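Q: Got a minute? One more chain.
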Amino acid sequence: MNATRSATETPPPAAHGVAAAAAWFLSQKTLPRHQTVALFANDFTRYLERLIPQIEQMAAAHPDDAAQAVAARAGVDEALQRLSLAHRPGLNGEVERVKRLARSVVALRTHYEKLGGRP
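A: Always. Here it is, folded:
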């Protein structure tokens, strides 16, 4: 962010990288190592925690019944639910939890762009 851009015009740092990592994680056919899953979980969580307030602010600037704002708010609600999920036992369970976070990363990035954020 700089003096000529507001917080809603500047995507969170490394936005493209995190969104690409989420897409990659979702496309995996084999189970990654547990440490790899933990690193992705951390990255996705931190990214969502930065992106959610921006989307809420951007959605608030639209009429309550605007389709894009309604969809973005629903995406935020879903992401918050996914962020509240506890770590799952075993590698399979944890991979499924992190895949849910990855889906929220991809969805919220799309909402961010549709609400007028820079790609």
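A: The radius of gyration is 15 Å.
Q: Perfect, thanks.
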